[in-house]
Amino acid sequence: MPLSIIHFPHPTLRHVSRPIVRVDAKLKSMAEEMLELMYEFDGVGLAANQVDLPLRMFVCNPTGKRDEGEPWIVLNPEIDRPKGNDTAQEGCLSVPGVYGQVKRPKSVRLRGFDLQGNDINQVLDGFIARVVQHEVDHLDGIMFFDRMGEEGLRDLEGHLDEFQTDYASKQGTGSIADEATLAKQRAEWETMYTGGTTTHG
Ligand code: ZN
């Protein structure tokens, strides 16, 4: 089945993704598919749990364009060394049309692996630092609006309620599986890619 972007309040968006220990052709093709979805929906980043995969991986390209910049596929990302502060508007492909001001460290260090198992270890600053922090948040089950102040959040409440209503109605018609089925699917992915004892990279 092709991957598709899930919307808030799908429970996989609240799942804390475990590190990937196995990389195979299927995982690589899913990462490429994530990049295609990201471009299709005019995003600059997409985390694996946004396509209902409970795996510690994200893709990004700060240009948001297929033919520009350098796409990144990052496995098992970790962020540290936060420096400075910056407030800017963020949106999310899992809550399309909803935007808010989010304060984050201006600069961070990103560590992880690419699909070939090469180390990634880079200090990022500005927009790319924001994108990467947003994506790593996803992998920890955190949405951008969780980091907004009360006042900004109040402006979004109506929008978020609409997403809740829409999700409930899709569950009602069966176009989204029930929670138990979704949890079972997540467990299967975790067994396949996070359950082994082999470390990658
Ligand atoms: Zn997002």
What descriptors fit this protein?
two-stranded antiparallel ribbon; disordered C terminus; 4 helices; single chain; alpha+beta; five-stranded antiparallel beta sheet
Structural class: alpha+beta
Q: What string, H for helix and E for strand, traces the elements in order?
A: HEEEEEEEHHH
Mean pLDDT: 95
Shape: globular
Regions with little confidence, pLDDT below 50 for 5+ residues? 197-201
Helix content: 25-40%
Strand percentage lies at: 15-25%
Strands, total number: 7
Largest sheet: 5 strands, antiparallel
End-to-end Cα distance, whole Å, is 28 Å
| Side-by-side strand order of the widest sheet | 1-2-3-6-7
Q: What small-molecule ligands were found?
A: zinc ion
Helical element count?
4
Provide a concise account of the structure shown:
The protein has 201 residues and is an alpha+beta fold. It has helices at residues 25-40, 127-139, 150-173, 179-193; strands at residues 45-47, 57-60, 72-83, 86-90, 100-104, 107-113, 119-125. The protein has a 5-stranded antiparallel β-sheet with strand order 1-2-3-6-7, with helices on both faces. A two-stranded antiparallel sheet has the order 4-5.
